[in-house]
Design a protein that fits this description.
This protein has about 150 residues and is an alpha/beta fold. It has one domain (about 5-145): Ribonuclease H-like superfamily/Ribonuclease H (Nucleotidyltransferase, domain 5, 2-Layer Sandwich), CATH 3.30.420.10. The protein has helices at about 40-55, 70-90, 100-110, 115-125, 130-145; strands at about 5-10, 15-20, 20-30, 60-65, 95-100. A five-stranded mixed sheet has the order 3-2-1-4-5. A hairpin with a 2-residue loop joins strand 2 and strand 3 (about 20-30). Helix 1 (about 40-55) runs parallel beside helix 2 and helix 4 crosses helix 5. The radius of gyration is 15 Å and the shape is globular. The protein starts with a strand and ends in a 5-residue tail after the last helix.
Length: about 150
């Protein structure tokens, strides 16, 4: 059995974990306006450390975004990506980015599917995501299971 993590990096990062054949997921890393600029990244690092303690993670997959609608979104994504890849290197865990279109096409059959279509497709698979961020991470986890030879 393999334990993998799938992440939809962003201001509201969605995550999914395959651990011992079971899937866990959520959405996290909100900060208040009173938090320092690095607080979300510190919380993200603590989250990764906690996941590693709970599961022997063999691989990490993340949604690879090539275009952002705003500067803040690009900076946030870049910060999460930098912290994630550095953490994976430090832990000697392989990681891979997967394009948004590839994930959408796998989940819905359409590379340009809307957020609602992704949520609907993930619900049809038996999950109940709280938002599109969690749905995206679940879609990525399912892609990894089907395309990367992940054993359950």
């Amino acid at each position: 059995m393999e334990n993998i993590v799938a992440l939809d990096l962003g201001t509201q990062t969605g995550w999914a974990l395959l651990n011992g054949g079971r899937v866990f997921s959520g959405e996290s890393f909100h900060t208040s306006r009173f938090s320092g600029g690095g607080m979300r990244f510190l919380r993200f690092r603590h989250f990764l450390d906690a996941l590693k303690q709970k599961a022997d993670i063999q691989a990490v997959y993340f949604e690879e975004v090539r275009r952002h609608l705003g500067v803040d979104a690009a900076h946030t994504y870049g910060g999460f990506l930098a912290h994630l890849t550095a953490w994976c290197e430090d832990q000697e865990i392989p990681y891979q980015g997967v394009s948004v279109g590839t994930i959408k096409r796998h989940a819905t059959g359409k590379g340009n599917a809307s957020k609602e279509e992704i949520i609907t497709a993930i619900k049809a698979k038996g999950f109940n995501p709280v938002d599109d961020n969690e749905a995206d991470s679940l879609a990525l986890l399912l892609w990894a299971q089907d395309n990367m030879g992940v054993k359950q």
